[in-house]
């Protein structure tokens, strides 16, 4: 039958607004509270024609003239509502950080948290001509002038607050996402969610074959009925996106009482699973729910989701639909100005992950715009999602309550995304934070969201005597505490390590304790971007401006230590990029060679700069790859062969080369062939071969290949060629004749 529709009409309030800084925090005062000299500075939510208001774009960043101020600013917009008889709801996509909202001088309420949507019913306040006023107060998180040790965080802004990769003199804040007036019908859906579970454990053979499997689910609806008690129909449909499959539908009768209603509908489905791109196809479905009253569609909700099962075995043996998934990831913050992130920009960034052979996105202490997660769903990347907290936070009980509320917001925003698989509740938390706020979050998440992995946090284990290991004011843990957390709390080892940057040399990573490699979620080193980016904050043709580099997150002392022969900007660019590429390649290969013993993944720090700066990223702010990106791409091939200990000097004559082979695919490889091609400086090559019967997926293997290194001057090139049915991988090294030189050469396409 034909159904008329009365679904919500939307008035987009984006565009030109006005703003007014409030450095003295006077805007909410009454005239009687102020001296007569400031009487005009009271009650900024009132309709007035003050010339103190300036134009501002919404959505948009915090105005530049107050970018470092912790004081609030006020934003206002006049608009016309054409249907004041409708049930109006004012919705905000995101305000950073606290919002107080007035409509027509009537206070609607407040909201805390930069990433979560929120809204207010304005049916009784809406007029034909309206004045919307929003007071925005930035987070109280510390700025970057003082060292972070001992500075407790009190707000949930994470990397958008104090962080050593963002602008130390700028506070991201403001109305960064949409503002909309929604005219709703009598029966309006506020929230719709599909919970589900597989009715049988995943069988490996069925999973790899992309077979359809049964799931049992429940549609959980939150509906507001503005009218009298009424009976209606809830219809639903689940439709495959971009692949052949049956559209599954159903309906049920529901009684809707006045006010808020919670409705649960059981559904049985047959679906294909969602996979990361390296294990299978990321199958997605559109879910549509309609509310039908008296033959008319009163409201409709549609969202995209996927079906998958995430479990974890010993250590970090992550299982996606029963198949072991080795995390190859990178930390990520898109931009300090989230309002600038369009769907196309997110799509391009996710493609950078894919092109680098990464299967995991790690939003670093930040909740990104919803378009990121939609792209990860579509392109098949797993998401290791941090709560927006970094380092030490306030340990008070009120902070715990706010943390649990923040997690509720995270889950409500991201629940439908199959890519979101891991909740991480501490980025280098103090010992005290781990034992209170992280523990509270893990226990709460495991009870409310058993479909994802709830993880206490990742650690910075103290490797040097001078590390501050205070239990409250430091993010370093002594090793004994890490061991205690494993035995007492079931913590899965998850470490940050920076040999070759903060301490030691590139090869120092091989001396670290084996248990620290269960999951490595940070490693890397800094390099300068190219001259086009440098020109935005220093003269790339002048002397090295260390002060400008430091103001852009660079660490002058460490850059000089690792690049002692760089005396011009151009030399420092080339040297630092070469060192970063060498370090990233060496560490990636070494960590992956430990797969299964006990390694289960690694996340490089980081993918991109979130502003024009000097950081650990392998892609600059304008998304131009550095040499380290190309090194990472080769080292992260799902199946790859690595030369063990490539930094050791080689002597001429017969000898054995140790080769590690890793397979992150869904199936074991049988009957592979490994060739080692040795090319002398004069271009003469010899090839040595070895057969490899089995390359399993659960751990890396090692093979010894007998070769002969030619005598003579000049470099020797070693090329590893791995061939198997349906695939191939190659990897190239350069060995020098000098025992004093670090012989770990760069990959093709990198210096």
Explain what you see.
The protein is globular, with a radius of gyration of 28 Å. The chain is α+β, with helices and mostly antiparallel strands and 751 residues long. The strands form eleven sheets. A six-stranded antiparallel β-sheet has the order 4-3-5-11-8-9, with no helix packed on it. Strands 28-27-26-25-24-33 form a six-stranded parallel β-sheet. It has eleven helices and 40 strands. Helix 4 (397-414) crosses helix 5 (431-448) and helix 10 runs parallel beside helix 11. Helix content is 17%, strand content 34%. A hairpin with a 5-residue loop joins strand 21 (310-312) and strand 22. The model is unreliable at 1-6 and 739-751 (pLDDT under 50).
Q: Roughly what percent helix?
A: 10-25%
What is the C-alpha radius of gyration, as a whole number of Å?
A: 28 Å
Mean pLDDT: 92
Number of helical regions: 11
Cα distance spanning the termini: 67 Å
Number of strands: 40
For the sheet with most strands, the description reads: 6 strands, antiparallel
Assign the structural class, choosing from mainly alpha, mainly beta, alpha/beta, alpha+beta, or little secondary structure.
Answer: alpha+beta
What is the strand arrangement across the widest sheet? 4-3-5-11-8-9
Low-confidence stretches are 1-6, 739-751
Shape: globular
Strand percentage lies at 25-35%
